[in-house]
């Protein structure tokens, strides 16, 4: 089967289906140079997976799919930290970026209307984080995080988040902890660390490096059963909005429209689509608007204590 032809056919059918609701014509008098598509698109992503090679493989598949669909080569560029992904998009080193809620809000605060959302996963508008604990703590399922704070009193427990800029691995778990306990993790645990990524948090809790930690539920759910048993869930947070594929608005309405249609059409009918959806723990991509992340912008602008 010719994968390129199959992807292009699916893309063209989807584009036709959405033609009544999307406008791809240039504004009269607009600069042709401003609307000219680049010869190559660069996509990056927050490094929330501790395995850089795995990220290259799977986001490379997304790049391949999008490139085949819109007829422009797309290349994945790996970055070493969350801030670098925002900087790459804001400065134009990347045209597209897979970001989480906090990094979307940070990019919005830097770029204003210069950032747009192409779509999010079907799981991203009701995302949750898990608090997990090493079995040696004796902790079971908790009704709220106030119970965790009480259980930690007089103990020598340590705690780990993921990256400081992670929505699901730090900022939202911290927000819920503060809301439910009236204090910060630093005042409850002997130390509070930042392990960098969700899978590292899980491994460090499982091996006893840290007693308790927080991570996104998708990372825990896709871990092997034996690892889950060594880092069981003790609390699930309320839902919030998280990841999306974002783009620079200056790509222009025509190319952005094509990219959006291609993303929403992605499914498991071709090898790249199946790989991407499996890796991202998604059934499909859905429409989303940058305004849906305003609550995260408001949270950051409120001056929430995000730790030392």
Automatic annotation (TrEMBL):
Name of one Pfam family that matches: Phosphonate-bd
The keyword Signal is annotated on this UniProt entry: yes
Organism superkingdom: Bacteria
Signal peptide: 1-32
GO biological process terms held by the UniProt record: transmembrane transport
Keyword Signal: yes
GO CC aspect terms: ATP-binding cassette (ABC) transporter complex
Keywords, sorted A to Z: Signal
Family from the record: Belongs to the phosphate/phosphite/phosphonate binding protein family.
Name of this chain's protein: Phosphonate transport system substrate-binding protein
Source organism per UniProt: Pusillimonas noertemannii
């Amino acid at each position: 089967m010719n994968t390129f032809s199959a992807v292009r056919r699916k893309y063209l059918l989807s584009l036709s289906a959405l033609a009544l609701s999307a406008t791809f014509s240039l504004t009269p008098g607009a600069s042709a140079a401003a609307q000219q598509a680049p010869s190559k698109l660069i996509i990056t992503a927050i490094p929330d997976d501790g395995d850089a090679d795995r990220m290259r493989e799977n986001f490379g598949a997304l790049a391949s799919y999008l490139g085949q669909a819109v007829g422009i080569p797309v290349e994945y560029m790996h970055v070493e930290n969350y801030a670098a992904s925002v900087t790459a998009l804001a400065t134009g080193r990347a045209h597209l970026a897979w970001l989480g809620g906090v990094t979307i809000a940070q990019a919005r605060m830097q770029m204003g209307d210069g950032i747009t959302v192409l779509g999010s996963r079907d799981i991203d508008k009701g995302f949750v984080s898990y608090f997990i604990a090493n079995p040696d703590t004796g902790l079971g399922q908790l009704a709220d995080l106030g119970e965790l704070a009480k259980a930690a009193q007089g103990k020598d427990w340590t705690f780990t988040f993921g990256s400081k800029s992670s929505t699901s691995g730090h900022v939202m778990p911290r927000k819920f902890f503060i809301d439910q306990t009236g204090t910060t993790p630093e005042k409850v645990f002997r130390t509070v660390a930042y392990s960098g990524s969700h899978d590292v948090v899980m491994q460090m809790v499982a091996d006893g490096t840290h007693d308790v930690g927080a991570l996104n539920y998708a990372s825990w759910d896709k871990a092997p059963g034996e690892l889950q048993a060594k880092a069981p869930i003790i609390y699930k947070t309320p839902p919030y909005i998280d990841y999306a594929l974002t783009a620079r608005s200056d790509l222009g309405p025509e190319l952005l429209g094509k990219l959006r249609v291609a993303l929403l059409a992605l499914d498991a009918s071709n090898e790249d689509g199946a790989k991407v959806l499996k890796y991202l723990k998604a059934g499909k991509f859905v429409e989303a608007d940058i305004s849906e992340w305003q609550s995260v912008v408001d949270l950051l602008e409120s001056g929430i204590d995000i730790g030392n």
